[in-house]
Structures are given as structure tokens and as C-alpha cells.
Amino acid sequence: MDSPRPRTATAEPVTLGAGVVRRSTRLADGRELLYYDDPDTTLGPERAVDTRTLGARPETATMRLDVLTGDWITVAAARRHRVMLPGADADPLAPQSPGNPSEVPSRYDVAVFENRSPAFGPALREPVDAAPPAADPPTGRGDLATLGLGRTRTSVGRCEVVCFSPDHEGSFGTQTVTRARTVIEAWADRTAALSALPGVEQVFPFENRGEAIGVTLPHPHGQIYAYPYVTPRTSRLLDSIARAGHDLFARVLAFERASERVILRGEHWTAFVPFAARWPLEVHLLPHRHAADVAELTDDERDELAPLYLRLLRGVDALYESPTPYIAAWHQAPVRTARDVVRLRLELTSPRRAADKLKHLAGSEAAMWAWTAEVPPEEAAERLRDAVEGVIL
């Protein structure tokens, strides 16, 4: 059976911070699509209807419990069929053209849409008949915390794609300051919306950059995952906060700002190589004021973040003659707990330890989570500081 078609091109536009305008619509199979227009956009208000004929959306994936660790592992077989490094004429994130029936019907500045093959899918049909219902959704945090052999649950939540630009190639760091500010507004808007979905416990915006990281599309884009549980990484952080005190982030920031590992200082943000960096290239970026997630940032904090983050990313690329692969991970507080003690932060990491060498996780790190760093953090910070100082936006 064919999936339902959207009845209208867009809903009423909504003006967000910094003059960014959001326009929402639906794709041919019912998935949500949102356009975020730059404040100085050259685009008109009209958006095309997605007229493709698409098959039904896949069943929501299943999670299996690893009883030895308490971790939930998602099994999403539909993700095996993702497109692998297509050319510009077959880019699924480019605006649709007569020869390319991509995911986005219209020209855009920034576009966000539900992933076609998500690791976490909708718990209910939204809209009606747009997606298969979850067969066995979690019933709460207590349900997911219970250990037992052979436990499974439907992998409810949401996975979204964030297109930074209609261009075929690039990254966040290749965007203008205005476009970076639009993306930040989109992150904040989607963080708030996804946090309000039933069953969502944590929201994670991130960007994978480079084939060495496993990127399958060269198009400048990131993703947002909305998880039905608090992630293992955040759970370990909560344990540390319980042991060290609720003011841990304030003390970490003061400690790092007094060190030789600072890369960039702003009125509202500081970027630094952490004291115990694991990766050859690792930078953390923290707001000076406590904010649990991007949605809690003030306009002034978002305004400063756009050029500062671009300077950091372009400095990373200035280290070598070719672009550096990285993961840019925006860690946010859980939706329903610890929001007064877990601070928003960026963790930018790269396995690149030289122009032609990568750090590969072998026995100790991959199997035992026991890390050995090969680049002293102070040395890495000095190189990054020099690179960032030469960046001109």
C-alpha cells in the first residue's frame, strides 16, 4: 500500500530567534520536514509538495538488552540499505530536481527531516497511518533499568537529518556565520520539540565529518537522535556528579580556564583541550552560564556561539592540508532528570594523529575502555591555538 501524501505544502510559518523562520510540511510517506530560512534569505515563502510515490515506512527497530552491562542495543536492519557516497546528481539531501527525486522537495537554507531508515522510530502513528505503531514500547525508566535475559523493547524515539546547506559538499565549518546561526536556532527548536515527545529521555545533536569517521554522504549535514533512555555515556557522568558534587561542571570550567589548554575565550563560551583528553585531537566547548541544552541558551549565547564555533572548526582544518575527520557531539542533559547539574557541552574528537595517520581503537581501548593517549593535551592545545589564531571569518 502506498503511503499517504501531504495535503498542504507548508503550515503557517513561525518566526524564531535571530529572525530565522520555520516552515513545516510532510514528505510523501508522512515524515515531518521543516525548513529553517536564514534571516537574509533569498527564498520565497512557497515550498513544493513532495509528489514522490514512496513505499511504507519501515517497522520501528527493536532494542535488545545486554544483561552484562545494562546497555540497550538497537537492531535496525533497514539501515543496511543507506546510500553510500553518491555523486551530486544522486544526492538524497540536495533539493529535488527532474533527475534527482531526493528527500527535500524545495530549495532551502537549512532543512530538517525524519530519517527514512532510523535507529529510533515513532511510538505512535503520527500522523495517522504514516508509520507502523510500536509493538512493545518501553513503559518507563524503571522498565528499561530492569535486568533480565532475552529482554527486548521497540526502539521508540526519533532520528532526524539536519541539512546545513543545499550544496553537495561541505560541513558545518564551511558555512557562513549567518547560516551557522540558523543551524543553532534549528538545533534549539528541535531539541525543545523532541524533548516533548512521549518516551524520549535524551536528545543528541551531532555531526559526523569525513569518510574516516564512516560518513556515507558528503553533503554538509548532521543528525539529531532522540533516545528512549539516558545514554550510557551520560549515565557514567551522572555517577561522577553524584561522587564529586553537583557543582562539578563549574569547577571543571574554572580549572580548565586557568590552564594552558585553552583554545578560545569568549564572553559566554570557552574552548579547551581537556586535562585527560583521550583522542589525538579533542576539544571541549562549554558555556560559562549553566544551560542544560541548546534550547536553554540565550540569544546572546547563540549569537557568540556561531562565529566562535566556526573559528574552532576552521582551525581544526588548518592543522593539515586536507580536511580533518571528526565527530562533533553536543552533549545535553537528560529530558527529565539532572537538568540542574548536567551542563550542555560540545565534545569535538578526531582520530587523526598526523597528516597521514589515524588512531585506531585496539584491544585495550575497544575491549576494556582503558585508554592510552599518544598526544599530550598541552601539546595539542598549543598547535590548535596557533591554527585558530590564523582563522579569519
Automatic annotation (TrEMBL):
Any matching Pfam family: GalP_UDP_tr_C
UniProt EC number: 2.7.7.12
Residue ranges occupied by any Galactose-1-phosphate uridyl transferase N-terminal domain in the UniProt entry: 148-230
Gene Ontology CC: cytoplasm
MF (Gene Ontology): UDP-glucose:hexose-1-phosphate uridylyltransferase activity; zinc ion binding
Cofactor: Zn(2+)
Region (Disordered): 121-142
Family statement: Belongs to the galactose-1-phosphate uridylyltransferase type 1 family.
Name of protein: Galactose-1-phosphate uridylyltransferase
Organism expressing this protein natively: Microbacterium immunditiarum
Lineage of the species this protein comes from: Bacteria, Bacillati, Actinomycetota, Actinomycetes, Micrococcales
